[in-house]
């Protein structure tokens, strides 16, 4: 009897504690910028060819319908929200993103965009990164109207930001066609330096707009995705030229981020080594429970890497066995492996620290 009372009291205290923690966690907003790796539906509202609004996209999403995500289910941004116990962010263009929902944050990402304004021009109407930042400004005005200028400023300061950008500046610009405008203008090392200097301006702007914790992902192994294996590889090996681009770009991105943090005097920017995160399962898919990392689950032609994933494409029965969902994008299961590293990875994966460390630090602040 007495032990029963004690256990009732303890479980009541536990519940109280859980409530306090959960409600404190719900305060943190999440803001997402970038390309198709994190777009959760903005392009569905735009007249663009870069869209994932037809089946089998979304086949493993809770609703089993396409949502604009370039995944069979959740993308990296969704899984971060889920792991933090937050509501999923809504696409900023959604008319449903109003009222209290603004406090959750917003997703400004748009498939096809890059660091450069000319990247993704072939997709017509997409939200280039400067436009995404403009919308972030607009968001802040709407939030201010709700909770006051000071409250909005604090909410943004205390928010978490994810920015995923850069791959398209290679695959959908420099290497889009032989003798592309950019490849005639720049040798690869000069192009990479130019991208990094432009990206620095963008990140500085994100900081100036109030962001104080920003996860910045580098590019994956672009030469190893099924699309590039189909287009450029002779024997199924990763394409050497795109791998060279990634190996030039990613270390310079890391250095640039270090420099920015030094300039600001605080670890605002966190470099996520997306290259290594992907490489682990690209090189050893079986160790992660995949049958292959070369063949996309959905597509056609060699490696299912030609064209887009459409209702007419080949479709694998079990998406959990494939590292790549479509010719360019990881499956939800691969996205979960990546997010696991974002949360708990060593400094080789997350520099200067991983997301669980960030959450612990910020909860004490
Ligand atoms: C890209 O566009 C934005 C705004 O439209 C502009 O501020 C920026 O300077 C442009 N970048 C380049 C490299 O032209
Ligand atoms: C990352 O997370 C793990 C556990 O969550 C922790 O033990 C480790 O020290 C962290 N590493 C860094 C560099 O923050």
Automatic annotation (TrEMBL):
Family: Belongs to the 'GDSL' lipolytic enzyme family.
UniProt KW rRNA processing keyword: no
Pfam family, one: Lipase_GDSL
Species of origin: Arachis hypogaea (Peanut)
Keywords associated with the record: Hydrolase, Lipid degradation, Lipid metabolism, Signal
One GO molecular-function entry: hydrolase activity, acting on ester bonds
Superkingdom of the source species: Eukaryota
Residues annotated as signal peptide: 1-24
UniProt protein name: GDSL esterase/lipase
Taxonomic lineage: Eukaryota, Viridiplantae, Streptophyta, Embryophyta, Tracheophyta
């Amino acid at each position: 009897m007495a032990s029963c009372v004690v256990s009732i009291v303890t479980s009541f205290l536990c519940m109280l504690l859980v409530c306090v923690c959960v409600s404190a966690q719900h305060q943190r907003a999440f803001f997402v910028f970038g390309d198709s790796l994190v777009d959760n539906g903005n392009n569905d509202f735009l007249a663009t060819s870069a869209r994932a609004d037809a089946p089998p996209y979304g086949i493993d999403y809770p609703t089993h319908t396409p949502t604009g995500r370039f995944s069979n289910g959740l993308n990296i941004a969704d899984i971060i929200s889920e792991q933090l116990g937050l509501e999923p962010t809504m696409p900023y263009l959604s008319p449903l993103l109003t009222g209290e929902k603004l406090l959750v944050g917003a997703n400004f990402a748009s498939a096809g965009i890059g660091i450069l304004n000319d990247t993704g021009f072939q997709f017509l109407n997409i939200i280039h990164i400067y436009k995404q930042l403009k919308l972030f400004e607009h968001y802040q005005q709407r939030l201010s109207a709700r909770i006051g200028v000071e409250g909005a400023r604090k909410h943004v300061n205390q928010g978490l930001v994810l920015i995923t950008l850069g791959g398209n500046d290679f695959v959908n610009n420099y290497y889009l066609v032989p003798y592309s405008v950019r490849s005639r203008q720049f040798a690869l090392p000069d192009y990479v330096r130019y991208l990094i200097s432009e990206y620095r301006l963008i990140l500085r702007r994100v900081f100036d707009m109030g962001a104080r914790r920003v996860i910045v992902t580098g590019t994956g192994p672009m030469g190893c995705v099924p699309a590039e294996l189909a287009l450029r590889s002779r024997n199924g090996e990763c394409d050497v030229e795109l791998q060279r681009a990634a190996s030039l770009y990613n270390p310079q991105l890391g250095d640039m981020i270090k420099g920015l943090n030094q300039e600001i005097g605080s670890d605002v920017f966190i470099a996520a080594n997306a290259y290594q995160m992907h490489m682990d399962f690209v090189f050893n898919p079986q160790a992660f429970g995949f049958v292959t990392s070369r063949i996309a689950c959905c597509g056609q032609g060699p490696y299912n890497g030609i064209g887009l994933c459409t209702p007419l494409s080949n479709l694998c029965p079990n998406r959990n066995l494939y590292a790549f969902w479509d010719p360019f994008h990881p499956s939800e299961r691969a996205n979960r492996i990546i997010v696991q590293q974002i949360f708990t990875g060593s400094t080789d994966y997350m520099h200067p620290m991983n997301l669980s460390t960030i959450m612990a630090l910020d909860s004490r602040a």
